[in-house]
Amino acid sequence: MRLSFHGAAREVTGSCHQVDCGESTILVDCGLFQGKNDERNADAFQFHPDQIDAVVLTHAHIDHSGRLPLLAKRGFRGPIYAHPATRDLCQILLRDSAFIHEKDAEWESRRRAKKGKDPVEPLYTQQDAELVMKQFKTIPYAQEQKILPNFSVCFRDAGHILGSSIVELTTCTGEHRRKLVFSGDLGHSGTPILRDPVNLEQADLVLMESTYGDREHRAWDATWSELGEILNAANHENGNILIPAFSVGRTQELLYAFQQHYEEWNLGRWKIYLDSPLAIEATKIYRGHHEVYDAEAEAVVRQQGSSLDLPNLEFCPDVEDSMRLNDMASGAIIIAGSGMCTGGRIRHHLQHHGVRPNCQVIIVGFQAQGTLGRALVDGKRDVRLYGEEVHLAAKVHTIGGLSAHADATGLASWYGHFKNRPPLVLIHGEEKAMDALAERLRQEFSPPTILCPQPGESVDLNHLLGGVTP
Ligand SMILES: [Zn+2]
After folding, report:
1. Counting Cβ atoms within 10 Å, is residue 315 exposed (0-12), middle (13-18) or buried (19+)?
2. Considering the entire predicted model, what is its pTM?
3. 339 CA to middle of ligand 1, Å?
4. What is the Å distance from ligand 1's center to 123 Cα?
């Protein structure tokens, strides 16, 4: 039995792990590398796609699912197992990803045409994304299912985004049974709407993410108070509020928080616009999956008859709806993509509203180096938008505590529930975070092995687990 790490090894994107057991080969996740124009996405896979028997998907985020249409385009014909909500989210996220690849290829082809060069093909098309959806098969939480003669899977709630799953993968050849547990992206306990990650007690090997292995999040109460204070202060400024939003997860958490604190934050005096077609679709999918809500969110649905709804919330699916907002000088909370201001409608709103000193920009998520969002957080106010130099006079606030990932204490505590202290593989983390977490786990729990694999590394499980494995 072998494990090979094709992505998210010493980095946080491109999740793709191969498990070979007996005659069968499966992948856990098949995600995009999300660095700017990362050329590895178009590279040949380090395996033959037509020799993969099945894919098991932890969740819908594109760094875990985004190369699936390419995998199918290059010959993979097997089933893709996922939670029903993950399937629904992939439907919109893969289509959106394909659309972006088509647009990028069109732009690049036009650029090349000017130099007399041949056009380029998109990584995959919307049609490829449609086709791969036919290969999805869904499994709800806590139902063990045999997916191949020597593999069975059971999904457990990972509490990260809707449908996100910890994967218990049991391999069975002859008399040997081994349980590998992939954490997937592990949620931040206390996240609105979703349940906390399920704790497990037994595994032969644990493969755990380590994104925030060197950091702690603020307490939820402090985070909500901070957001409330900004919103209440904005009441006196008589301007608009812009929130660059991540379409899946953060947007829905915000809407839920608005619903919970509606009176306290005096939200009735605002008009709230969700100005992102993708976030609107994702919100509808969140509304349709009450079965995975936590007890509090379920109670809201029971009492109010709906979730993620507000009397003054308006969806803006079309460009015309979005452009209408240009004329509003005050009283609007505009939630628009993209989350790091790298594209999407938020850039138009920054250009129109961000130039006014009574405008507030609230940053609610991680901002990568090199993005406009990061520049704003770092205090830059003279920026380029649509080829023009723009001075942003708006106040920029950063809410640090909202994260969809467990922090270092959350990760350590999750591993700490495994009573037998199984060997551990750390994935999905940058080196610094991974090393810090490995050190902490060594001190707290002394696991027999902690492996931090290199990209492309392949390990024989005999070495990792000891004893004979097929
Ligand atoms: Zn994720």
Report:
1. middle
2. 0.95
3. 14
4. 21
Is residue 470 in a domain? no
Q: E-assigned strands of 310-392?
A: 313-315, 332-336, 360-363, 382-385, 388-391
CA 15 to ligand 1 center in whole angstroms: 10
Q: How far is the CA of 405 from the centre of ligand 1 (A)?
A: 8
- Ligand 1 centroid–CA 366 distance in Å is 13
The C-alpha torsion from 10 through 12 and 15 to 20, rounded to 10°, is: 20
Q: What local confidence, expressed as pLDDT, does residue 305 receive?
A: 84
Tokens of residue 409, six digits: 């204490």
CA of 61 to the centre of ligand 1 (A): 5
By residue range, what is the domain housing residue 360? 220-398
Residue-wise pLDDT for 326-359, tens only, equals 999 999 999 999 999 988 999 999 999 999 999 9
Query: What is residue 467's predicted lDDT score, i.e. its pLDDT?
Result: 55
Quick: pLDDT tens for 186-201: 999 999 999 999 999 9
pLDDT surpassing 50 at residue 321: yes
Ligand 1 centroid from CA 49, angstroms: 24
Distance from Cα 9 to the centre of ligand 1, integer Å: 15
197 Cα to the center of ligand 1, angstroms: 13
In a domain, 210, yes or no: yes
The whole-number pLDDT of residue 468 equals 47
- Which CATH number characterizes residue 269's domain? 3.40.50.10890
Q: 334 alpha carbon to ligand 1 midpoint, in Å?
A: 24
Distance 458 CA to ligand 1 centre (A): 24
Under a CB-based contact definition with an 8 Å cutoff, are residues 372 and 341 in contact?
yes
Q: Are residues 359 and 301 in the same domain?
A: yes
**What's the CA-to-centroid distance between 281 and ligand 1, angstroms?**
18
Lowest-confidence region among 93-107, 153-167, 213-227, 364-378? 364-378
Q: Which of 404, 402, 403, 337 is nearest to 163 (CA)?
A: 404
Copy the structure tokens of residue 320: 């015309």
